[in-house]
Amino acid sequence: MELSERAADFFESVSKAANAIREAVKQDNYIYVFSHLDADGVAAAGIIGKALYRLDARFRIRITQWVDEKIVNEILEEKPQMVIFTDLGTDYASLLRQKAPEIKVVALDHHQISEPHDDFPCVNPHVYGIDGAREISSSGIAYFVAKAIDETNVELAPIAVVGALGDLQDKYEQRSLGGLNEKIVEDAKSQGLLTVEKDLILFGRETRPIHKALASTTNPFIPGISGEEGKSFAFLENLGIKTKVNDRWRALRDLTDEEKRRLCSALAEYLISKGLHYEVSNLIGYVYTLVKEDSWTPLRDAREFAVLLNATGRMNKPGVGIAICMGDRGAALEEANKILEEYRRTINEYLEWIMEKPGRLKELENIYVVYGEDRIDDKIVGAISSILSTSLPNPEKPLIAYADVKEEGLVKVSARTVDAVVAKGVNLGEIMQIAAEKCLGKGGGHNVAAGAQIPIENVEVFIKLVNELVGKRLAGEKIGG
Question: Which of 209, 230, 327, 412 is deepest in the core (most CB within 10 A)?
Answer without folding.
Answer: 412
